[in-house]
Design brief:
- The protein is built from seven helices and five strands; from the N terminus they run αβαβαββαβααα.
- By secondary structure, the chain is an alpha/beta fold.
- β4, α4 and β5 form a beta-alpha-beta unit.
Length: about 180
């Protein structure tokens, strides 16, 4: 049943299902299996993202669960990474961190970020420098990511990150953690 809002506010109309949501394709790629990645994929799907788990270690895929991913891959490919893709690296301690981010930086994407606290050194920076990745490319990687909502659990962290992506996509400040 359509709801007519007296103000004619398009946001209110959309909330009541009267206007179509933005038809722009949206893909969320989470890099590395982790508890946060699982929640990002779950909530991301509910938010209209095509969800992709990128796990370079195929052995981890053998024992892991990825029920929330629409697709699973071991290498980044341009059939699921394009200018509408948001990429979230969910583990900054993996040995393949630098190599994986380097390969992602060579692709077209909308946004890329690495989870981690600003209180700690960003391991991806040294890993990328060791691979001779240019500083301008390293600077394209956001860190820390998400909105400052005091999140502590994997689900709360995922919500914080997704809220930050939505704010960024909608060109809103969103209260980022940095």
């Amino acid at each position: 049943m359509a709801h007519s809002h007296p103000s004619g506010d398009p946001a209110c109309a959309m909330a009541h299902g009267e206007l179509p949501a933005d038809a722009e394709p949206r893909t969320l790629v989470t890099v590395f299996m982790s508890p946060v990645s699982d929640y990002l994929l779950h909530f991301g799907r509910d938010l209209g993202f095509k969800t992709v788990l990128l796990e370079p270690d195929s052995e981890r895929l053998a024992w892991g669960e990825w029920r929330n991913a629409d697709e699973v891959a071991t290498i980044p490919r341009d059939d699921f990474i394009d200018r509408y893709t948001d990429i979230v690296v969910t583990d900054h301690d993996r040995p393949e961190l630098g190599k994986t981010i380097d390969s992602l930086l060579r692709m077209q994407y909308r946004w890329i970020g690495v989870m981690g606290s600003k209180r700690h050194a960003a391991p991806h920076v040294d890993a990328l420098r060791a691979l001779r990745v240019p500083e301008y490319a390293i600077a394209r990687v956001h860190r820390p990511i998400g909105l400052n909502i005091g999140s502590k659990t994997p689900a709360e962290i995922a919500i914080s990150v997704l809220a930050g992506l939505i704010a960024d996509r909608n060109r809103r400040p969103g209260g980022h953690t940095f």
